[in-house]
């Protein structure tokens, strides 16, 4: 019987030692868990801020694109008007040439109208997507 009692005593000592080791690990694991949770919260906040910035940038870009589309339509319309005017001037010049007018006189009339046609240059800004980097 003594061997069973000694085994029970040894078993209880081993269990006590194991519990002692595990109990010393628990605070360290809790500290690590708290660090991970804090880092997770920071990352969530950063993601939310980046999403907000992205949405604001998209709104700004959408607004700018809408304005540019309107401006393009205006310029296309002006371009059509100028082409029509140039076509009419060329037709008048051809009529004048066919009637026997002096060609230097006709070209000077064309130059007068051509000088009135403005040159339109469209500048499309480069878009920076750098705000999306982590």
TrEMBL record:
Coiled-coil annotated spans: 19-92
Domain of life: Eukaryota
Keyword field: Coiled coil
Keyword Coiled coil: yes
Protein name: Uncharacterized protein
Source species of the chain: Diversispora epigaea
